[in-house]
Amino acid sequence: MAVARMTFALTAALLAASSAPRAAPPLDYEFFKARVQPIFLQKRDGHTRCYVCHAEGNNAFRLERLSSGATTWNEEQSRKNFEMVSILVNPGDPET
What we know:
Elements: H1 2-19, H2 29-36, H3 50-56, H4 75-88
């Protein structure tokens, strides 16, 4: 009887542990810098670049201004852009 209770308790504990929600992975700065951030500077037919509105505007998502003559952000600017994105994005919810 004690073995049956122990087996039941162990099985219940394993099931509970496997069905517990898992923490979302943290946002990845290198992925952001290499794959996401360049999108903000891409030309799109019929639209302006994301950067144009999000560097000048006073909105929830504000990008760092590019340095004079630069075509992309430097390391410090990229880090600040990543910090801004990190505030707005929920890594467990791709819809955000």
